[in-house]
Fold these 2 entries.
Entry 1:
Amino acid sequence: MIEVKNISKSFGKHTVLKNVSATFEKGKVNFIIGRSGSGKSVLTKCTVGLLEPDDGHVFFDGRNFTTMNRRQRKEIRKEIGMLFQGGALFDSMTVEENVKFPLKMFSDMDEEAMSSRVADCLTRVELDGHGDKYPGELSGGMQKRVGIARAISMNPKYLFCDEPNSGLDPQTAIVIDNLIVDITREYGMTTVVVSHDMNSVIEASDTIHFIHEGEIAFKGDNAEMMVSDSETLNDFIYASKLMRKLRDKSSK
Amino acid sequence: MYLSGVGIIFNIGRYTRFIATVMRKPDKWTIFRRQLIQEMTIIGTDSVGIVALLSVFMGAVMCLQTAHQISGWIPVYTIGFTVRQTMILEFSPTLIPVILAGKVGSNIASQLGTMRVTEQIDALEIMGVNSAGFLVLPKIIAGFICLPALVVMSMGLGLASGAGIALLTGVSSMADFEYGLQVDFVSYDVVYAIIKTTVFALIMTSVSAYHGYFTSGGALEVAKSSTKAVVYSVVIIMLTNLVLTKLLLT
């Protein structure tokens, strides 16, 4: 479980997060949703330590990450996997080398064990036979799947996904959503997904945190979200014509 | 920001912290060794051609220009003497790093800048890797090893091409040129050149890496970082050259 308590973050005079608290549960896909610029990516970066919050604390299974020194943080980070918006694969390495990289850096496995683990991860994301390709030779969806394979190679306890479906067609997006859900259940991970894609939220979320202007404006699950009377949340959910049609259809 | 008083202090402070992070012990020595060899190939081996070409032409031109300027009462061995002093004291140890700051420095800055804007550096940090140390330390060490070697090679080629062109054009006999190379030779000049080169290697690699590592934005900012890396490396090399010359030679 990951707990974020009273996190605030400003850049100069611009306050991005205002006293944000949230709990991301183990074995569940926890979504952070909100409009562009609402502060969801900053919240994620503060949670994983890529940004230092001005105030507040982050706890990974009760361990206060915010007050840890560099060495202690390094140990926690070995338990974190992250899928980045653009994949963030290392261009100079093949798919296999990308997935093997965390193992080479931090595990005591021999070469054979590492290769076997990489093969397992690539099979899990249905990319067998693509190990010798470079990221530039892969489609966006395949790059995301390699990103997932790399993120799970160290058997992480916590998985963070930053806009996992951005730039993907709807069918590939569903494949990625399902993969994230399946892996979360399989590994019993605490998964946090940052997204503004409502299809993805409906498809994959267990819990939802809606951020509006740097504050948590809604916490709940899918069903609660759909009947919420929060105006800002409804504006966000029903921004698209498709969602409005669905709402109108279900209300008839 | 960069050229304002606050900007300069901010950048010096951030650069110092950056170097302190870079200089930490590598996470895994086997991976560090492999990266070091890769960087030595980029900084060293891949630069041999351009350094050789420039040095050969500079030695030859220096020989012809000196021959053109000496007359009557100035001894002919002055040609060899001037070529030697120019190559050892200034051309090889200063101009070669300046030229490499353009070639290697922009490469380093654009590589790290691209890694920053495509979140590859964030990915390393999330894994628990000291990204600055992992990416930059091999470049700095490779610079320390390769740049002095390239500069010594440049000195040798410059002197050899000077001798060659003197013979070919007949501006000096080989005996006069050789005498010029040897007269009043102070071996400390070579030590001075190597010390300068080592300092310039640190400036060239670390300043370029600093600009690339702290890139933010997109492709346009990567290009700007690359330009800044070259400009700042060259300016700092020139300023340091003045200080080191004062400290080491006078």
Entry 2:
Amino acid sequence: MKIMLLAFLAIAVIAVGSNLILGQAGFSSQDRAAGPAVRLDD
Amino acid sequence: MLRALIALMLTLSFLSTASAQEKAVPDRSATGGAQTLEDIMARQRGDDVDNSFRSDATGNPDSAADTANQLGTLGGASDPELWRALRFGSADITASNNGPAATTLVQDGGMKWLKFREGPLAKYGGDLLMGTFILLTAFYFIRGRITIDGAKTGRTITRFKAIERFGHWLLAGSFIFLGITGLISLFGRKVLIPAFGHEAFAFLAVGSKWIHNNISWAFMLALAMIFVMWVIHNLPHKSDINWLLKGGGIFSKGHPPAKKFNGGQKLIFWSVILLGTSISVTGLALLFPFEINMFAATFAKLNAFGISGALGLGELRETLAPHEEMQYAQLWHAIVSFVLMAIILAHIYIGTVGMEGAYDAMGSGEVEEQWAREHHSIWVDEVMADTQSGSTKTTPAE
């Protein structure tokens, strides 16, 4: 039971972690599809 | 004589090819080469129409009229020819957008995909899950819970170590989340929006997408863990044939002998590994749109090996628009997921309510010795032999 809960906790940690990493890895639609002249953040 | 026969056969084959080609090209002189009423009717009937008379008719710059000429402004291509080139993906396009699919301005595979996704995919996928659920419920009422036949010993054997259980629950937990959020995404427009409205679904859809995209990594990691830890125990063994032929003894008294994993569990293991890998690969293609294109290459292989022909699919298209790659990835991802979900429903059933003593294997990792003897007799003997030899080894010499 303890192991099961630990695994579920790991799922949450991996999900949040991967979201942070992928957000900075340059794979957002903006990074992939918009040219340098496009300023979507501003 | 043989030469004459070969020559005759070659001649006949050329004749038949020629006649087939003649038959394949309809007379379009009345429309100046454009499509005829018969072409349109054939398409509406759903017949295969050879579109090459249109896809190839995209103008010829070499025979362009002079730019000063009335018809010279488009450089040897008329408007319809330009639109055809755009539609069939042969136009030379420059886009300021640097996305991988930016130069695909028209792709008409989308409607086919949408109709399949909303129609057969949702219908048969839903039916499969509901059917599996009904079958399992019926099985429970007919067969009842599979109990431990013999007297319990009160002793336990360690069936799965902590790391094995961790890998299992990492896979199981992520799969359930992925399954539910995947179903929310698929049935959103057809079922959830009509039921709960746009606002509620918008909230649900954003959350589902976040969960589905990010939990996928835990699933892939767990899939690799499970493979490494259990593949050695899931290689085929002669006892599996006997086990499968007797249906695991599910309808009879007593259970066929089995090793650590019985024939049924091995089927589950390989289903999870193969289908899970397929889901992961298509999932990665969807996570990184247009980066991983594999369907055109797969179709080319299926054509080359004659598999598509043998399956009655005809010649599959070997050139796909980037969006079509994504559409096929989504469909395959969903189809394989439905199959795996149905298998896992049965796995969850037998591991919980369906069988006494089964849950302990993944709960505490310790199983009742009598349960183990009934379901995995060969494995118990191996464990006992190991324990005895281990204790002999560790006994200090006197």
